[in-house]
């Protein structure tokens, strides 16, 4: 398959273009969503970058133009330290950014905030969103449930999604955070689809074919496999919290998201950032690499069609 034409872009320009495309939404949510999707491209995951934003904007516009957008239920219901958000009218990145903002507001006032989101679209890498919580001095956890594509450990049929989860803890210093961000499957669905388009094989041991047998044919995937027993159990955990609590499991209208924000001061941990730095130092001395420490690229390639779809000349509406 011939290579797709690309354009070399600066991360700051990409964020500005993404924000402009999201101008109809709350500015703070648009800014976080823009930073998150650009982080996908800048960290080498274009499937979770601007291309995802273009798709989500088109899907949201289609729901509006076909009259399928909107809900009889309130868009958000807040009860104490919890909130439930109906995100059917929102692009996926904006939905998760909104959930993060609301969770932070609750945590600032109550010490803890939990936001459950139903009927959400694709969000990209969830770690980019909770990083914002950590950079603001909070602890963040985000879970993203998705349609069934992954078999249980030792199983042969898909039961849960790739179900990524992320945890972010503040570290001392401006803009620093410890961020753990991982899918619970051996490969992401986006990676499998990209390999199928390119005719590239899958690694060994990451998928089963439609016949239930191991396969490396990305075009014949019947089920992805979990990242071992622990990955399988974590995927089940995400399904329970982000899928069952939101009612998203089995709901064709969208996915479930679950965001937790904690204010360290509510736990007497005002020095949490310093504690996280010491943990990072211990981790590094033992030969590990601290997650979230490596900076993203400031210049990267973007599919030209994706870049043009977000161009201001088009009104920012793909």
Outline of the structure:
This protein is of the alpha+beta class and 318 residues long. The protein is built from 9 helices and 11 strands. Residues 70-74 and 313-318 have low confidence and may be disordered.
Query: Could you state the CATH homologous superfamily of one domain?
Result: Malate/L-lactate/L-sulpholactate dehydrogenase, NADPH binding domain
Distance between the first and last residues' Cα? 25 Å
What's the average pLDDT? 91
Please tell me what the overall shape is: globular
The oligomeric state of the chains shown is single chain
Largest sheet: 7 strands, mixed
Low-confidence stretches: 70-74, 313-318
**Number of E-state strands:** 11
Give the strand order of the largest sheet, numbering strands 1, 2, ... along the chain: 2-3-4-10-5-6-7
Please give the share of residues in helix: 25-40%
Structural class determined from secondary elements: alpha+beta
User: Could you tell me the radius of gyration in angstroms?
Assistant: 19 Å
The CATH architecture assignment of one domain turns out to be 2-Layer Sandwich
CATH topology of one domain: Ribosomal Protein S8, Chain: A, domain 1
Strand content: 15-25%
Helix/strand order: EHHHEEHEHEEEHEEHEHEH
CATH class of one domain: Alpha Beta
How would you describe this protein?
A hairpin with a 2-residue loop joins strand 2 (76-79) and strand 3. The protein has 9 helices and 11 strands. The protein has 318 residues and is of the alpha+beta class. Strands 2-3-4-10-5-6-7 form a 7-stranded mixed beta sheet, sandwiched between helices. The protein has a two-stranded antiparallel sheet with strand order 1-11. The chain has helices at 11-21, 27-42, 50-65, 92-110, 127-135, 189-198, 228-244, 272-285, 304-309; strands spanning 6-10, 76-79, 82-86, 112-120, 139-144, 165-170, 177-182, 207-209, 221-224, 255-262, 299-303. The protein has a domain at 73-185 and 226-295: Ribosomal Protein S8, Chain: A, domain 1 (2-Layer Sandwich), CATH 3.30.1370.
């Amino acid at each position: 398959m011939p290579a797709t034409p690309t354009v070399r872009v600066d991360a700051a320009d990409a964020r500005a273009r993404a924000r402009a495309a999201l101008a109809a939404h709350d500015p703070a949510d648009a800014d976080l969503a823009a930073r998150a999707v650009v982080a996908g491209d800048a960290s080498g995951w274009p499937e979770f970058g601007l291309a995802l934003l273009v798709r989500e904007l088109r899907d949201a516009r289609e729901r509006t133009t076909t009259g399928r957008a909107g809900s009889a239920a309130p868009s958000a219901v807040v009860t104490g330290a919890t909130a439930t958000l109906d995100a059917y009218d929102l692009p996926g990145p904006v939905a998760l950014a909104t959930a993060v903002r609301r969770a932070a507001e609750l945590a600032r006032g109550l010490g803890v905030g939990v936001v459950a989101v139903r009927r959400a679209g694709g969000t990209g890498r969830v770690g980019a969103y909770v990083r914002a919580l950590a950079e603001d001095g909070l602890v963040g956890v985000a879970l993203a449930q998705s349609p069934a594509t992954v078999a249980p450990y030792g199983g042969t049929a898909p039961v849960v999604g790739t179900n990524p989860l992320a945890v972010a803890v503040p570290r001392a210093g401006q803009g620093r955070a410890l961020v753990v961000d991982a899918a619970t499957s051996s490969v992401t669905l986006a990676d499998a689809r990209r390999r199928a388009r390119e005719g590239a094989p899958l690694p060994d041991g990451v998928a089963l074919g439609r016949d239930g047998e191991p396969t490396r044919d990305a075009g014949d995937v019947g089920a992805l496999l979990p990242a071992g027993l622990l990955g399988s159990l974590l995927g089940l955990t995400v399904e329970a919290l982000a899928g069952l609590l939101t009612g998203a499991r089995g709901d064709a209208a969208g996915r479930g998201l679950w965001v937790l924000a904690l204010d360290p001061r509510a736990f007497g941990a005002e020095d949490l950032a310093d504690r996280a730095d010491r943990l990072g130092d211990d981790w590094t001395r033992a030969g590990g690499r601290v997650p979230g420490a490596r900076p993203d690229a400031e210049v990267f390639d973007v599919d030209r069609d994706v870049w043009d779809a977000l161009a201001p000349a088009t009104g920012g509406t793909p």
